[in-house]
Automatic annotation (TrEMBL):
Name used for this protein in its record: Response regulator
One GO BP annotation of this record: phosphorelay signal transduction system
Residue stretches spanning the membrane: none
4-aspartylphosphate PTM positions: 72
Pfam families in the cross-refs: Response_reg (PF00072)
Span of domain Response regulatory: 23-136
Species of provenance: Roseovarius atlanticus
Keywords linked to the UniProt accession: Phosphoprotein
Coiled coil location: none
Amino acid sequence: MDDNDSLTLTKTPTARRPLLGLTILVVEDSRYACEAIRLMCLRSGARIRRADCLRSARRHLSVYRPSVVIVDLGLPDGSGLDLIAELASAIPRVTGLLGLSGNSDMATEAINAGADGFLDKPLDSLAAFQQGVLAALPETYRPAGPRAVSQARITPDPMAYRDDMNHAANLLDDHSDGPVLDYVAQFLDGVARSAHDTALLQATKDLAELRARGRTPTATVKALTAMVQDRISRRVAI
C-alpha cells in the first residue's frame, strides 16, 4: 500500500478545518449522498475517495489505506457489514471505521461488526458529520482547544439526485422483480432520505413491505417507476 494516512496526519487539524490531513474513503452507491459527504469533507479539510460497491472498495483498499472508511450498509453487491468486519480485523487496521445507513436500527449491527461509530442518513449537518468522524478517531487526531459548532446545512447539486434517479430507472426497466427490485427499494430509500423526498420515501417503504411478504406488486412497481421518471424530468422539485 502506498498511502499511510491512517498512520499519521500529514497536516495538523484546526478548529476551522477539524478533519485536515485525513483521507476518507466513502463506500456509497448513491451519488447524491456521496456528493453531500464530498462537500462536508471539503469544508472540513479532508480528502475524499469514493467506491460505489464492495468490489470497488476492496480494489481501492488493495492500493492505499485511508485514515477513515465510511461504509453504507446497503450496497449493490452485498452488505456493508461484511466490509466493516473485514476492515475491523485487518492488520494494520484503518484508524476510523464508520457505518452509514438511513435505518438507525442498523447502528448496533455496525458496531457489533467492528465499526467505531455510525452515521445516520440524511447526512446534511456539517457539525454532525465532523463530530461523527472525530468521535471515531483517537484524541491525537482531533484539533486542540475549543471549536465552534457549525450550523451549516449541506445541500448537494440536484444533478447528483437525477443521476441516482437515472440509475434506479435503468434498474427498474431491466428488472421488474426479484432481488434487484429489493435492492432498488433499498437504494431509493436511502436517496429519498438524503434528499428529504417524503413522497418517494413512502413509496419505497410500501414496496419494501410488500416484498418482505414475498409479493411482487406490479402496480406498486409501476407507480414507483412513474415517480422516478417524474424526478428525472424535474417535474418534482427536491
